[in-house]
User: Which sequence fits this backbone?
């Protein structure tokens, strides 16, 4: 048991180090922007569905906003295994857990780099396009690993039925992984042919997928003779 805990702590520490390096790189970008931008610059921190900024912040909090969010993501991924009742299952899902965490952190890095590049006039990216492409890539990465995730309370498709039936968990995650990859590919295709707002495309595809997987997890649970029933 002590060896298992030691292995788990080592993996979590390495993941925290990797996510911390991403946050450090984002902070360096912010520091450079802080030196280059005028003191009274208002930094966009939120965008509407039309791609236009609709909320701003002062220079320092605006430049630190995305690095802080990324740091919070890394800390949450570090914390979850410590409070996960099915800790061993989460450890057995380590490759998926690690890669999804890093994919999310790298998404934030890409968004931050594009955002700062726009502020400094170094690049001219449409924010919604960047978000759409990066989110689509995260969906593809997540979908590729989703079918390998073991039952746990913190990571994966958690419904009352997947959590009380290994059959429902496994079948829902295998199907969900394929559907997430499909959704990501549709999002990228929408970006390439520019037929619609890429974020809207992803949302319109994901909502029915999530609702379908919710219902599917129940149907599999219902027919599972080994499901757990609460009384």
Assistant:
């Amino acid at each position: 048991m002590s060896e298992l805990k030691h292995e788990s702590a080592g993996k979590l520490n390495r993941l925290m180090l990797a996510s911390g390096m991403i946050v450090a790189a984002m902070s360096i970008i912010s520091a450079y922007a802080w030196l280059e931008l005028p003191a009274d610059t208002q930094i966009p921190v939120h965008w509407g569905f039309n791609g236009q900024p609709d909320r701003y912040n002062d220079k320092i909090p605006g430049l630190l906003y995305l690095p802080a969010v990324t740091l919070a993501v890394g800390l949450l991924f570090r914390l979850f295994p410590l409070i996960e009742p099915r800790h061993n299952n989460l450890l057995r899902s380590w490759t998926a857990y690690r890669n999804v965490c890093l994919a999310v952190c790298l998404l934030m890095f890409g968004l931050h780099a594009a955002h700062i590049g726009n502020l400094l006039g170094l690049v001219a990216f449409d924010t919604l396009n960047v978000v759409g492409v990066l989110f689509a890539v995260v969906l593809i990465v997540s979908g590729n690993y989703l079918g390998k995730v073991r039952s746990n309370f913190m990571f994966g498709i958690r419904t009352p039925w997947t959590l009380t039936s290994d059959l429902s968990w496994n079948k829902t995650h295998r199907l969900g992984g394929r559907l997430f990859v499909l959704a990501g590919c549709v999002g990228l295709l929408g970006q390439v042919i520019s037929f619609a707002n890429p974020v809207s495309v992803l949302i319109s595809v994901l909502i029915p997928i999530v609702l379908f997987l919710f219902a599917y997890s129940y149907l599999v649970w219902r027919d599972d003779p080994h499901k757990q029933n609460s009384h």
